[in-house]
Backbone:
């Protein structure tokens, strides 16, 4: 690693932390009430100004050119304060990556050229499912040079705040899965009310319905699984970095509380039962951070298909975040359950993240299948 | 073949007696059969209430309070009052319907299978009553219960709550060793004819709804265990005010309130128990602190376990429905072996949790707070005599000083340590096992439902948010593990020290 790289990483860390502490933190509780209350859009605009939504783009489009370590540093440091914003950045980058994998960089360039606001720039994507496990997907039929979509895509992340969405649909006739880029402002698109979800409230979600909606196919017909799988490992790790950030926040707050809270005449951090809980948390957080850092240094994120090492390291981190955030609440007792403290939010966010890119158990079963495939 | 000494010795395992491990067997012959009928009745009532009131509104209520955290769901309290739920378990001698306390857990499970917040809105009222009962101040219990009965008749609900937690003292309260080193601050200063009370209580379930607050305070903050006092304070008392309503992650329908006491006067006839009343007993005041506290918790923790069974079942049922109607990769989820195994785990959690609260019920019926009214002659006498007659006969007895002295002698002074430890130990084990099982079911449910489980409209995510509190209230699960050790594992080991780890 060169000195200039190091400087760049430090700058990214400081920028993300500053953004998290100065911009996100003061509005965290208020934004967590969305969609049952308004969201402060200025935060999203600020993230856009800071180019957080551009990081994954090729350098010629103002990004870092798919540099995983840089994305991970941003996500981890923002997620420590508010995972909602981190997931917004992640989903947008995921959609960009699929488009790039499909060789449709021009489509991204078009978005960059015509963008006037953060909304015009963002790409929505249904990231809390594995598209090839669900039975109800939209369908597409060819009409001249373009395609027409009909049907519904549920739970589209950023669906109600983005200019466009990347969705998958089955093409009539050959039943193959393909990705399509859709203009969400088109009259034939109906975006539903924001979905009220378990966590990640600051990252809006809605169902999207298509009624004879014109859409642009991304890459080749029937190649959606290939593009998805090429993106999968890299973005599982990026998602895991959010889980690691959440864990770090939960641990830091738990430790600070346990040092100050006195019960039975001594700080509860001196109770060995609680020390053991904190110790499990610390080990898990450090292990996850180390694993992610090593994988980033080791060249993860080059878009190679079937990167079992990355996936095997990433999946357990989501499980660990679920457990660490639960302990984070326990350490604070009754206070941990209250919205004024951030532990309950982290708990919900971590549980929510378990479904990132599909059901947790299915991800494990799919890993086994790819592992066998590799071995044979 | 075996002499009597051998028989006893051979029944003990790991320092635990046969009675410790088999409360159910001991209770079978002693429990009145009528309790089974009562259980069926209250379960039917709960199901009707769920169908007509709770289920149609639970998710919207959750959203409403998330939108407006200060909203108080009075309509639910009034609906429960109209169903007669705030007097169902008030003994007939106090004017209530006199259902056996043992049946309450099954009722609580039923409500919790639909909405934990609603289950708590009703159950916490009886936690207040349990505290009055645990101090055995029957004249005061009679006075307050009459108001609850009147509240049902008038349509203006009269609820009780139970206030022990303070801003700097949560775990502190649970044990005399801890409280003496702790940071309690609610002080009751003796004045002519009563006490003047100052301080704050927090996280008090139902505080904003309650007419009567059953509060724990201390005469000397440096010697809290030796000077504790329980008193009842009405919400219109001068100097009393409600502070903030907490913004909780779940169980939103049941407010967690801050109670503020500023020079509140508590007359002597509203003192449940204090050091003056325990003078002359063979047990010290601090010993009685632990007996009262443990007796209350033995009931309330059984309730938490019943809540847990309800959640575990509610999640199981939702998940079962989902897997029966969802295809993954072309296969019906319910036909996948890994799904079948997870569903079996979920049903296991429901069954084990229910068995556990039943065991605590048996223990409480045999050795705990429920014992007096579950002795067969007393049970049948109260069950079959008309309520007005019971009230007429009971009132002079209940109000007599002889009755007060005798009940306290039996329940506090002559209470056997091993019986108290049995109920407390089982209650702690049930509490942490049940709540962990409920959480496990929520996690399995979320996993099996995937993206669908994340949506509020599908209820699973609400179950998860609601359930997390089960691992916290009535003592964190961490504290309950230590309590289980103290009462069950370490009780006959004289080398054991508790809460002194460095």
Residues:
């Amino acid at each position: 690693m060169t000195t200039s790289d190091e400087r760049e990483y430090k700058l990214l860390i400081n920028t993300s932390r500053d953004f998290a502490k100065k911009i996100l933190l003061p509005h965290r509780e208020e934004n967590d009430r969305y969609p049952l209350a308004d969201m402060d859009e200025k935060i999203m605009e600020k993230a856009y100004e800071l180019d957080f939504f551009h990081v994954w783009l090729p350098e010629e489009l103002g990004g870092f050119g798919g540099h995983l370590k840089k994305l991970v540093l941003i996500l981890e440091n923002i997620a420590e304060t508010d995972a909602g914003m981190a997931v917004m950045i992640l989903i947008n980058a995921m959609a960009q990556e699929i488009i790039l994998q499909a060789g449709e960089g021009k489509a991204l360039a078009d978005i960059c050229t015509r963008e006037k606001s953060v909304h015009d720039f963002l790409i929505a994507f249904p990231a809390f499912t594995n598209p090839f496990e669900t039975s109800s997907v939209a369908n597409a039929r060819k009409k001249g040079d373009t395609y027409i979509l009909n049907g519904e895509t549920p739970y589209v992340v950023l669906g109600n705040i983005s200019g466009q969405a990347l969705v998958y649909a089955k093409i009539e006739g050959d039943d193959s899965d393909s990705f399509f880029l859709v203009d969400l402002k088109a009259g034939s698109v109906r975006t539903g009310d924001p979905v009220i979800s378990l966590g990640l409230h600051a990252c809006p979600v809605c169902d999207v319905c298509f009624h004879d909606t014109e859409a642009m196919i991304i890459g080749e017909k029937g190649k959606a699984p290939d593009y998805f799988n090429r993106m999968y490992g890299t973005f599982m790790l990026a998602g895991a970095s959010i889980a690691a950030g959440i864990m770090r926040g939960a641990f830091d707050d738990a430790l600070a509380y346990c040092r100050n809270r006195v019960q039975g005449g001594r700080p509860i951090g001196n109770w060995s039962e609680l020390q053991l809980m904190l110790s499990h948390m610390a080990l898990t957080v450090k292990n996850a951070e180390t694993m992610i850092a090593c994988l980033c240094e080791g060249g993860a994120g080059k878009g190679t298909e079937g990167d079992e090492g990355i996936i095997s390291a990433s999946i357990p981190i989501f499980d660990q975040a679920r457990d660490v955030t639960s302990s984070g609440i326990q350490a604070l007792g009754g206070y941990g359950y209250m919205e004024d403290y951030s532990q309950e939010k982290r708990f919900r966010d971590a549980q929510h993240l378990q479904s990132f890119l599909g059901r947790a158990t299915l991800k494990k079963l799919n890993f086994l299948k790819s592992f066998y495939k590799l071995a044979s | 073949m075996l002499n009597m000494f051998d028989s006893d010795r051979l029944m003990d395992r790991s320092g635990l007696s046969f009675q410790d491990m088999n409360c159910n067997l001991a209770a079978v012959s002693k429990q009145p059969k009528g309790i089974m009928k009562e259980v069926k009745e209250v379960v039917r009532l709960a199901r009707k209430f769920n169908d007509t009131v709770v289920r149609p509104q639970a998710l919207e209520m959750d959203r409403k309070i998330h939108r407006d955290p200060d909203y108080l769901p009075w309509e639910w309290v009034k609906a429960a009052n109209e169903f007669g739920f705030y007097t169902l378990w008030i003994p007939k001698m106090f004017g209530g319907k006199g259902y056996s306390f043992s049946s309450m857990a099954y009722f609580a499970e039923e409500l919790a299978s639909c909405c934990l917040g609603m289950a708590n809105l009703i159950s916490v009222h009886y936690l207040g009553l349990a505290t009055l009962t645990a101090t055995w101040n029957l004249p005061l219990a009679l006075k307050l219960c009459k108001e609850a009965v009147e509240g049902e008749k008038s349509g203006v609900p009269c609820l009780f709550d139970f206030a022990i937690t303070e801003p700097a003292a949560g775990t502190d309260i649970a044990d005399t060793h801890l409280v003496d080193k702790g940071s309690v601050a609610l002080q009751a200063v003796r004045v002519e004819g009563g006490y003047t009370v100052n301080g704050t209580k927090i996280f008090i379930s139902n505080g904003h709804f309650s007419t009567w607050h059953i509060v724990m305070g201390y005469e000397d903050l440096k010697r809290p265990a030796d000077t504790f006092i329980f008193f009842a304070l009405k919400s219109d008392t001068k100097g009393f005010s409600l502070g903030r309503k907490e913004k909780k992650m779940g169980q939103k329908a049941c407010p967690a309130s801050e109670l503020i006491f500023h020079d509140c006067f508590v007359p002597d006839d509203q003192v449940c128990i204090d050091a003056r009343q325990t003078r002359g007993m063979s047990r010290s005041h601090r010993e009685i602190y632990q007996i009262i506290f443990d007796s209350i918790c033995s009931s309330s923790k059984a309730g938490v376990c019943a809540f847990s069974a309800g959640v575990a079942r509610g999640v199981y049922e939702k998940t079962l429905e989902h897997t029966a109607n969802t295809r993954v990769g072309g296969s019906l989820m319910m036909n996948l072996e890994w799904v079948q195994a997870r569903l079996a785990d979920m049903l296991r959690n429901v069954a084990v949790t229910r068995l556990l609260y039943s065991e605590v019920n048996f223990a409480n019926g045999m050795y705990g707070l429920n014992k007096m009214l579950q002795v067969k002659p007393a049970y049948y006498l109260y069950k079959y005599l008309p309520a007005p007659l019971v009230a007429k006969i009971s009132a002079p007895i209940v109000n007599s000083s002889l009755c007060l002295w005798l009940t306290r002698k039996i329940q506090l002074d002559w209470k056997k340590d091993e019986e108290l430890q049995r109920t407390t130990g089982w209650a702690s084990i049930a509490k942490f096992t049940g709540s962990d099982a409920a959480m496990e079911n929520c996690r399995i449910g979320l996993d099996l439902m995937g993206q669908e489980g994340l949506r509020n409209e599908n209820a699973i995510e609400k179950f998860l948010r609601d359930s997390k509190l089960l691992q916290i209230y009535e003592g964190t699960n961490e504290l309950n593990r230590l309590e289980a050790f103290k009462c069950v594992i370490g009780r006959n080991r004289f080398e054991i020290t508790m809460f002194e780890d460095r």
Q: What stands out?
A: The two ends of chain A are 36 Å apart (CA to CA). The first strand of chain A starts at residue 123 and ends at 124. Chain A touches chain B through 52 residues (CB under 8 Å).
